[in-house]
Specification:
Blueprint: E1 4-9, H1 13-24, E2 29-35, H2 38-48, E3 52-55, H3 64-73, E4 79-84, H4 89-97, E5 102-105, H5 110-121, E6 126-127, H6 129-136, H7 152-162, H8 167-174, H9 178-192, H10 197-206
Parallel strand pairs: 1-2, 1-3, 3-4, 4-5, 5-6
Helix pairs in contact: 2-3, 4-10, 7-9, 7-10, 8-9
């Protein structure tokens, strides 16, 4: 059985070592690499090309969100999971907008991380219950017609955008031009009264058009 490769980033050396040992114990995972220096994380992920990366959000020098943004901008196929001590609703919304695959808190039991990684490896987005509660309470603007006001194509593009795909990847997925995707996104923003992908993701997931935030 092939192993899924995981890259680990945390600025606390003892915790990082514990995470590496935890992941390495599982027969379906292997540790591709790790670092306590968030400033080095993106370059290492780009070089090692792991299947998944587990990041803290709040780290010195560069935040986990900044690393996630760089990963998405570079169209790297790595699936990112946040393992963090705390996360605010605005951070959760931004993470969703940039295609986060999973979020769980460090206070969770060790087996919870393994459950999360297995879910993500199987193609499922995984959010712990306490994080899902934050996602469900994200503030959103009033939308008269809701997402039902979008055309089928617009709903499809909104879903892909909220999964973290760039305009280029959305165009490739749909067999359309990148300019066409930009026009559709502009129309989506206008109809839903949002002005960026972060606000779109908050609206999309709270309205229930995306996958259920819960990992169960």
């Amino acid at each position: 059985m092939s192993r899924h490769t995981v890259f680990l980033v945390d600025d606390h050396p003892v915790l990082l070592r514990g995470l590496a040992d935890l992941v390495a114990m599982e027969t379906d995972f292997s540790v591709a690499g790790s670092t306590t220096r968030s400033v080095d994380a993106f370059a290492m992920i780009d070089r090692l090309k792991p299947d998944m990366a587990v990041l803290d959000i709040n780290m010195p020098d560069i935040s986990g969100l900044a690393i996630l943004r760089r990963i998405r901008a570079a169209d790297l196929p790595v699936r990112v999971v946040f393992l963090t001590a705390m996360i605010t609703p605005s951070q959760a919304a931004e993470a969703l907008a940039h295609g986060i695959w999973g979020i769980l808190l460090k206070e969770a039991a060790p087996d919870t991380l393994i459950d999360c990684l297995r879910g993500v490896a199987a193609g499922r987005r995984w959010f712990a219950d306490d994080v899902a509660a934050k996602l469900g309470n994200l503030p959103i603007p009033a939308v008269p017609a809701g997402l039902a006001g979008l055309t089928r194509r617009e709903r499809e593009i909104a879903g892909l955008a909220c999964s973290g795909l760039s305009n280029k990847l959305i165009a490739r997925e749909l067999g359309a031009g990148e300019g066409t995707v930009k026009i559709h996104l502009h129309n989506i923003f206008q109809k839903l009264r949002v002005n960026n992908r972060t606000a779109l993701a908050a609206l999309y997931y709270q309205r229930g058009d995306g996958e259920s935030p819960a990992g169960t």
